[in-house]
């Protein structure tokens, strides 16, 4: 038992040991200072030249967003056609079919927005070509999109007043060449030598020890699994994601995958403070995020270690905790840690089936995705947190009766309006989406379009409601994990979550960038005795309170109907 | 705007070559030097492949150690968990059934001897491992069916079991296939 708790502790410690220097390195890379990876410059120059890009061309925030949206739309169109026609393209040793239009629509949006909600199963729904040229490609570039957007935001606060926020393509390309690709290469090799397959051979067949014929899906998964975690993407090579023994062969690789998904989000927080020359601010933000994480983590692990009360009643020994949907080589403790990490950071890869987790675990998982900024996804975690910061600045300003300021720039009506709209967007998408699906379950449960090819809910009662709430929350948070019992490969879920995914990604990127761009262009006001300092303990507590209050107000009723209600029926 | 579209298309093309051709080919080349030559490590018995080290398989015969329940019947080309919620009444009935069946084949057991992993389905449906306790409860049955002493079988379980990583981190496990292959080899 203690070895399992040591495992969590060691994994988190190693994460910090890697993430903090990485943050310092990233701040230098994006500021254009000298770093040891400068030997990669010729490769970058080659990429710029072949793409017709001048990396020195300065952009304002609007141009940044235009460039970002343009390239994302190019990927959407490209990926949609490849997925629809994958059966006719090469590298399909298992003979898997092309996707239906609604599934292709959902899958391509899902991967472009860094979510990786998968309504198909990796073994039978895609080919090696689409796994690499669509899914894995997008895992790299969607993560780089998020990081580049965060750097634009950093840039707005670096100098006193500035409209020139650097070049989007430069940030984007450097995110890949200086960060994602080298780290992925290292991690892919670790996985390859721990048992994850790398070869392009198709399915294998063998006769088992007691004489059954078994087909084994394989494929070049190691390269994919590496960027899946480093880029906080989370889409699995195999259907059961990182619970699959080839995708996550051992306790060791499990820790590697856990560390990989957290280092960039933490590094971005550290990089922020160094980049804008306010280190104390980033330590304060890091503190709030870490406390938030612990508040979700501790009850999660404890609810999993406690086991399922209904099974305890049967007289079974749950020495290590609840085991349904979990793997023996990980055990419930670090599986609980994983489920917290994967939901607060928008990874969404799973090493256990969240649908089978204890009700309170489901509660904390949902809450983690709703808050979505305790570290948060690659780059976008900082942007989400920034919205909470602006709201906190505004409320604090009201409390002391002064025009609110953030880092020397007046925060005025326009910025607050944007922040408020982004804050309202998530509850709107999640709750309206869940309400709509609940309506359909109640009134059209037997309609052919709703139950083909599989009926929706895998579990009755409150848990069934949680399945729908989880799917919508995961889509909006661009998380990608699911209560996978939900039959989600049908027109309703493919189309509905497709829209939620798209809006839940791009508006929460454009909003914060717009606020940062507007603020950065304003006259700089030197600090005075009356300035609200953003890097104090008081203000950090204020931000924390804002996060809790906003989310509690938005989601408490829905959470009560789902996991809380299930919890109370289970313990009675 | 037009400039951005052209740049986007060209950049996408360049990155496709770098990220989807060069990168995975490097990994595939290096992976060729790993234990299973990049295709997954196989386990052989008398020169014949009997399975993959990491992929659990179905064991039902009394002379073998059994693995965990699998909601996909150990179908290794269609992994899957049960996704049953903890309060689902059908699911709880199923677990009860598994307990009864275990007790039937191991009449010497009390309910409280049975560890949870032996009556719950794994996440992947392909879990290659069981807990040390899960192996311990089966020793007597396997020994009886193989006409071996309990001590011999118990020693073999101890030898096959994997402790925590570096002796410090994570749970102890027993790989069912490895254990069963070792048992078969013992007989000769």
- Radius of gyration of chain A, CA atoms, in whole angstroms: 23 Å
Instruction: Estimate what percentage of residues of chain A fall within beta strands.
Output: under 5%
Oligomer: heterodimer
What is the rounded Rg of chain B? 22 Å
Subcellular location (chain B): Cell membrane
Family (chain B): Belongs to the KdpC family.
Subunit structure (chain B): The system is composed of three essential subunits: KdpA, KdpB and KdpC.
Protein name (chain B): Potassium-transporting ATPase KdpC subunit
Commentary on this structure:
The radius of gyration of chain A is 23 Å and the shape is globular. With 572 residues, chain A is mainly α. Chain A is 64% helix and 2% strand. The two termini of chain A are 27 Å apart. In chain A, α3 runs antiparallel to α18, α10 packs parallel to α19 and α13 runs antiparallel to α19. Chain B has 188 residues and is mainly alpha-helical. Chain B has one domain. In chain B, the strands form two sheets. Chain B has a two-stranded antiparallel sheet. In chain B, a hairpin with a 2-residue loop joins β1 and β2. The radius of gyration of chain B is 22 Å and the shape is extended. At the A-B interface, α1, α2, α3, α6 and α7 of A face α1, β2, α2, β3 and α6 of B.
Overview features:
heterodimer; A: 572 residues; mainly alpha; two-stranded antiparallel sheet; 19 helices; B: 188 residues; two-stranded antiparallel ribbon; 4 strands; extended; membrane (chain B); Potassium-transporting ATPase KdpC subunit (chain B); transmembrane helix (chain B); P-type potassium transmembrane transporter activity (chain B)
């Amino acid at each position: 038992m203690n070895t399992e708790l040591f495992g969590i502790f060691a994994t988190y410690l190693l994460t910090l040991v890697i993430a903090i220097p990485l943050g310092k390195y990233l701040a230098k890379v994006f500021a254009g200072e000298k770093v040891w990876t400068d030997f990669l410059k010729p490769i970058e120059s080659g990429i710029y030249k072949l793409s017709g890009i001048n990396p020195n061309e300065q952009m304002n925030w609007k141009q940044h967003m235009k460039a970002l949206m343009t390239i994302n739309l190019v990927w959407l169109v490209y990926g949609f056609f490849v997925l629809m026609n994958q059966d006719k393209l090469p590298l399909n040793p298992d003979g898997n079919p092309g996707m239906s239009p609604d599934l292709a629509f959902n899958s391509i949006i899902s991967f472009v927005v860094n979510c990786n909600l998968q309504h198909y199963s990796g073994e039978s729904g895609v080919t090696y070509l689409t796994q690499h040229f669509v899914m894995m490609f997008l895992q790299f570039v969607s993560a780089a999109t998020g990081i580049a957007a965060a750097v634009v935001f950093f840039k707005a606060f670096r100098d006193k007043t500035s409209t020139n926020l650097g070049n989007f393509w430069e940030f984007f390309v450097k995110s890949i060449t200086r960060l994602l690709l080298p780290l992925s290469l290292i991690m892919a090799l670790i996985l390859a030598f721990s048992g994850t397959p790398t070869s392009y051979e198709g399915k294998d067949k063998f006769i088992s020890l007691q004489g059954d014929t078994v087909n084994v899906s394989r494929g070049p998964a190691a390269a994919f699994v590496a960027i899946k975690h480093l880029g906080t993407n989370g889409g699995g090579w195999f259907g059961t994601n990182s619970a699959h023994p080839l995708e996550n062969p051992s306790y060791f690789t499990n820790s590697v995958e856990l560390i990989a998904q957290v280092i960039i989000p933490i590094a971005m927080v550290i990089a922020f403070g160094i980049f804008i020359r306010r280190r104390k601010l980033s330590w304060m933000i890091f503190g709030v995020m870490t406390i938030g994480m612990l508040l979700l983590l501790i009850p999660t692990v404890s609810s999993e270690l406690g086991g399922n009360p209904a099974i305890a009643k049967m007289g079974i020994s749950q020495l290590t905790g609840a085991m349904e949907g979990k793997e023996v080589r990980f055990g419930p403790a670090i599986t609980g840690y994983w489920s917290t990490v994967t939901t607060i950071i928008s990874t969404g890869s799973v090493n256990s089936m969240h649908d089978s987790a204890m009700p309170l675990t489901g509660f904390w998982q949902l809450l983690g995705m709703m808050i979505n900024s305790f570290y948060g996804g690659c780059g976008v975690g900082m942007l989400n947190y920034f919205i909470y910061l602006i709201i906190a600045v505004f409320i604090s300003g009201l409390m002391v009766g002064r025009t609110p300021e953030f880092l020397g720039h007046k925060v005025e009506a326009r910025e607050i309006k944007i922040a408020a709209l982004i804050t309202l967007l998530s509850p709107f998408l999640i709750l309206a989406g869940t309400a709509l699906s609940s309506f359909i379950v109640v009134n059209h449960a037997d309609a052919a379009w709703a139950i083909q090819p599989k009926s929706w809910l895998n579990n009755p009662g409150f848990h069934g409601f949680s399945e729908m709430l989880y799917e919508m929350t995961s889509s909006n948070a661009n998380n990608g994990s699911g209560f996978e019992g939900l039959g989600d490969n049908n027109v309703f879920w493919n189309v509905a979550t497709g829209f939620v995914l798209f809006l839940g990604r791009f508006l929460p990127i454009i909003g914060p960038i717009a606020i940062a761009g507007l603020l950065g262009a304003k006259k700089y006001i030197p600090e005075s005795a009356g300035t609200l300092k953003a890097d104090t303990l008081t203000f950090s507590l204020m931000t924390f309170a804002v996060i809790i209050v906003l989310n509690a107000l938005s989601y408490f009723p829905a959470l009560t109907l789902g996991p809380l209600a299930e919890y109370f029926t289970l313990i009675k | 705007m037009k400039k951005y579209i052209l740049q986007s298309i060209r950049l996408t093309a360049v990155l496709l070559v770098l990220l989807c051709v060069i990168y995975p080919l490097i990994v595939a080349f290096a992976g060729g030097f790993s234990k299973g030559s990049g295709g997954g490590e196989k386990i052989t018995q008398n020169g014949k492949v009997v399975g993959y080290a990491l992929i659990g398989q179905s064991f039902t015969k009394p002379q073998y150690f059994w693995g965990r329940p699998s909601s996909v019947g150990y179908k290794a080309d269609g992994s899957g968990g049960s996704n049953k919620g903890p309060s689902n009444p059908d699911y709880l009935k199923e677990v009860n059934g598994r307990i009864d069946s275990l007790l039937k084949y191991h009449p010497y057991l009390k309910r409280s001897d049975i560890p949870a992993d032996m009556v719950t389905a794994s996440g992947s449906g392909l879990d290659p491992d069981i807990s040390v306790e899960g192996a311990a409860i089966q020793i007597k049955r396997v020994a009886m069916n193989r006409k071996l002493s309990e001590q011999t079988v118990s020693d073999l379980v101890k030898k096959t079991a994997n402790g925590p990583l570096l002796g410090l981190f994570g749970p102890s496990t027993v790989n069912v296939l490895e254990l069963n292959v070792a048992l078969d080899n013992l007989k000769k």
